[in-house]
């Protein structure tokens, strides 16, 4: 049995939403925490005890956080530490890590504001599917979005990856 833990840190990237084979929403993201310390000799501040936490949230919580939070935001995470184990596909060695199973998450209001909107069950998945359909339609309508008119851009093309098309 693990104890509840609270993290206050920043999202290192945008949370990623996926769905399990049974249709359960799963959001994966990383939170970086550190402690600010002042050097008594120089008077300068620096980060100390920096830790990166792999986090997972499930179901409606996963859908809501993906819709609400972005890279760089300061967040408060309440969850519990779990040990994840797997076998490395390449080497066949057993691996494990400590991750955070998220029970609750929200933006820190220390340096930001937030407007809370109550969602109905499954609303996040509906929004996700609608956004995906709209993106696909926009790509087909964009004459510069593809080499072949009427098709969506390939992965890695503008809008489909991290690098611009030039």
Description:
It is a single chain. The protein has 166 residues and is an alpha+beta fold. The protein has helices spanning 59-68, 123-141; strands at 4-11, 16-19, 25-38, 45-58, 74-87, 94-107. Strands 1-3-4-6-5 form a five-stranded mixed barrel. Helix 1 packs across helix 2. Mean pLDDT is 82; it is low at 146-161.
Features:
166 residues; alpha+beta
Strand order, main sheet: write it out: 1-3-4-6-5
> Tally the helices: what do you get?
2
Mean pLDDT: 82
Helix/sheet category? alpha+beta
**Assembly status:** single chain
> Main beta sheet, described?
5 strands, mixed, barrel
Proportion of strand residues:
35-45%
Question: What share of the residues lie within helices?
Answer: 10-25%
Low-confidence stretches: 146-161
* N/C terminus separation: 52 Å
Give the number of DSSP strands. Answer: 6
The radius of gyration is 20 Å
Shape: globular
Order of helices and strands: EEEEHEEH
